[in-house]
Amino acid sequence: MIATNLALPSQWGEYGLAGLVIGSLFLLVYSFLSTLRSKDSSHQKFIKELLDDDRIERREDRREHREINNKLASAIEDLTEEIRQHNTLLPPHGIEGHHKSG
Fold first, then answer.
1. Cα(53)–Cα(51) distance, rounded to whole angstroms?
2. Which helix (H) or strand (E) holds 84?
């Protein structure tokens, strides 16, 4: 590779100072791009983990929401049944008819 050739001072005479500078720039750009790629892949992994965690949390929230809705529906059904049973014990005209006597 050119980078290893440029590292040897004996090769500087062949390429000259300009070759050393240009080679160093290419090496720097290559190093910069490889660092960016590795950071990009680590950021992609991090984002994937965040999204997976959020998906799991939303699934748990939906499950809890269903449980609460089921409990609420059950309580409403129980209350409705109690009201029905209570209404069958009232006089035929209901509470209003009972108070209007007289």
1. 5
2. helix 9-88
Domain of residue 6: give its range: 2-89
| 8 occurs within a structural domain | yes
Distance CA 17, CA 37 (A): 30
Give the pLDDT band of residue 102 (cuts 50, 70, 90): very low
Phi, psi (rounded to 5 degrees) for 86: -65, -40
Residue 90, SS3 per DSSP: coil
Residue 69, CA distances (Å) to 57, 65, 78, 81 in order: 18, 6, 14, 18
Summarize pLDDT for 69-79 with one digit per residue, the tens: 999 999 999 99
pLDDT tens sequence across 17-36: 777 788 888 889 999 988 88
What is the model's pTM? 0.44
